[in-house]
Automatic annotation (TrEMBL):
Pfam families: ABC_tran. Keywords: ATP-binding, Nucleotide-binding, Transport. Residues 1-22 are annotated as: Disordered. This is ABC-2 type transport system ATP-binding protein. It comes from the Bacteria. PROSITE patterns: ABC_TRANSPORTER_2. One of its GO terms (molecular function) is ATP hydrolysis activity. Belongs to the ABC transporter superfamily. PANTHER family: ABC TRANSPORTER RELATED, ABC TRANSPORTER, ATP-BINDING PROTEIN. The lineage of its organism: Bacteria, Bacillati, Actinomycetota, Actinomycetes, Streptosporangiales.
């Protein structure tokens, strides 16, 4: 039996303007910098070593307000470590990070209000349904009950985590469902900046199209997005600005068209990170 085609859920009602105390936060961010426009996200000299190994090597990165930033880099380049320091989940050895002028380490609560975060390997209360989780987090964010219920309902519907999925606890979600509930938790409080580590990993094509739509609307509404991804085509499709990370450093950054020139991002990437494409040699036992 063939199942009926899934209708693309509406992404209406979700946008950057649904958050709390925006004006106050914006004024605070501008005042903090003493300038007319502050970066949505500014990482300066972030550094982290694990024993002898330098995971992030004095990395700098700036996301302009209203920009859609794609961070790419080979496995082990330091993207997740840099982003987890940048959002306050892991303490850097050196360096600082600010969101709209608010220092992530000096004023963590104010910074967190401005940010929606989807970390890699998300840790969250899991013995709850998606609705229970979002309702609980809405309370933690200080949303009133009616507002939290409305946003929860919209987010579950958009992410297709309502209906039969409501009977499943988060602990039993598939990998893709976990990404989607993670994104919903990042959006719930109406942040100005989204920091999303591999948001499309393990997500089915229909859900990916929905997430793209949400993120585009978020940026069109004045928000800023930073995603990390290994999918160059996706970064080229979505992002106006890219950063390339290799061996703990941001080795190239700027507008997409300037970074890739007249080549594809993938060709530029391979050039910049200085890797040889493997797979052509060895493994002779695979081919008879
Ligand atoms: N807690 C840790 N302890 C020791 N080493 C770590 C730890 N976290 C990360 N590393 C190391 O730091 C380096 C950067 O890892 P990281 O996960 O940040 O890279 P990445 O660019 O996100 O990689 P991927 O694309 O594979 O997710 C790697 O060499 C990794 O082994």
């Amino acid at each position: 039996m063939t199942s009926p085609p899934r209708t693309k859920p509406s992404t209406e009602g979700i946008g950057v303007h649904s958050g709390i105390s925006r004006t106050t936060e914006k004024e605070a961010a501008t005042a903090a910098s003493g300038e007319g426009e502050v970066a949505a996200f500014r990482l300066v000299g972030l550094h982290k070593t694990f024993g002898e190994h330098t995971a992030v090597d004095h990395a700098d990165l700036t996301v302009a307000p209203g920009s859609f930033y794609g961070l790419v880099g080979p496995n082990g380049a330091g993207k997740t470590t840099m982003l987890s320091m940048a959002v306050g989940l892991q303490r850097p050895d050196e360096g600082r990070a600010s969101v709209h002028g608010v220092d992530v380490w000096k004023e963590p609560l104010r910074a967190r209000r401005l940010m929606g975060v989807l970390p890699d390997g998300l840790a969250m209360p899991e013995r709850l349904t998606g609705r229970e989780l979002l309702t609980y987090l809405g309370q933690l964010h200080g949303l009133d009950a009616a507002e939290a219920a409305q946003r929860t309902g919209e987010l579950l519907a958009v992410m297709e985590l309502d209906g039969p999925a409501e009977r499943t606890l988060v602990v039993d979600y598939s990998t893709g469902m976990r990404k989607k509930i993670g994104l919903a938790t990042a959006l719930l409080h109406g942040p100005k900046l989204l920091v999303l580590d591999e948001p499309f990993e393990a997500v089915d094509p229909v859900s990916a199209a929905t997430i793209k739509q949400i993120l585009k609307r978020f940026v069109a509404g004045g928000g800023s997005v930073l995603i990390s991804s290994h999918v160059m085509a996706l970064v080229e499709q979505l992002c106006d600005t890219v950063g390339v990370m290799a061996k703990g450093r941001v080795v190239a950054a700027g507008p997409l068209d300037e970074v890739r020139g007249d080549r594809s991002l993938e060709e530029t990437f391979v050039d910049l990170v200085g890797v040889e494409i493997g797979g052509g040699e060895g493994l002779s036992w695979l081919v008879s």
